[in-house]
Hints:
It comes from Hucho hucho. By secondary structure, the protein is an alpha+beta fold. The protein is 34% helix and 26% strand. It has 2 domains: 7-70, no CATH class; 80-210. The termini are far apart.
Amino acid sequence: MDSRVVVSESVLLVDGGETIVVQGLWVAPSVRGQGITGAIQRHVTVFACRLVRRLFLKLGTLMYLSSCLWQGILSLCCEVGDIGPFLEELQQRLDQEYKAEAFNPVTLSQAEAEKAVLSTYVVANLLPGGTIINNWEPLNLMEDNLEVLRRRGLTWVADCPLRPNALSLCTRPHPVPYCHVALHLNINVFWSHLEICANQMRWRIAAECCGSHAG
């Protein structure tokens, strides 16, 4: 990095003003603990949760942090022209692995999405700890936080609107300073059946990156 430090921090006020969700990233190991996380650990006496991006944490880390949930991560970076062949190969592997019926996506309206998210079935079977997550930000299920999601103009998809086995939300693709013309999008999938989750993720990538909802 030629002695440069890359840092990214954001703060989001949620839970009706009672909670702050903070994201921070320091690239240079020499400055660890000097960001917002270090400040919280030194000065704030009540902080409960951390959304963990790794499968394993050191014991010392877990002594002062409690994990609210774990996430599996798929990070995909490729040229637009490579998306089609990638999705075709992925579909072939899914067909061989699961031999499942075709995935029939249902795009939910905002009202349908909120009804599903607040339903007892989805809270108990899909949402980890009863928490909705978007763009790495864990949000409790309450009206103020739903308003945060409304402002983001998300698209919601499920395999069925009432008792879904997989429910996903996706941010709008937005440009980022990478290469010449690059777009970034974030997809969160909550699922109880891996087969449906995998097919929904494939459909999502095709819909958002290729501009086609055809499976």
